[in-house]
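Predict fold of DNA-3-methyladenine glycosylase I; 190 aa.
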Amino acid sequence: MGPLLGEDGFARCPWAGGPGVMRDYHDHEWGRRVSGEAAYLERLTLEAFQSGLSWSTILNKREAFREVFAGFDADAVAAYDDADVERLMGESRIVRNRMKIDAAITNARATVALRESGGLEALVLGFAPTDPPAWHDTAEMATTSAESVALSKELKRRGFAFVGPTTMYALMEAIGIFDPHLIGCHRRGR
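Predicted 3D structure, encoded as tokens:
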């Protein structure tokens, strides 16, 4: 399926059809570069929490995630202890999955450790594809790439968790490592 024309006259990737949180995310954030450690840690954390769930679920809980994870300040989250994990497990405004909560804390600690060798942002950017994809329809789209597999392995080697190749591919799309929009989508190339 290729881009769909919305009621507002703009062609979009088909998952961003009607008005609402998904279309807002598509039009204003997905595929755009972010910068800074907190922005990268946020996206990495949210992609991990999304695993097995719909992205709209995560977007609708995003402000709560930002609140309970201290704005994704790596130092603050890295200092979370067992009491914080229990607090988060009782927080109905987020996805309450102990493995994912533990991974968020583990990843904050690994992010702090990465500062000695250039930081999370530099590491992720180092896996940008040399030949970015350009798809016409969703049937052509991939869910992993050689780069996402390599990024996953490197992050795991550096102590990160919940960073499989598919999750890392979604991260690369989300933060604009390459332009993920379909050819014909009004956001492509912007």
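Residues 98-114 form the longest helix (17 residues).
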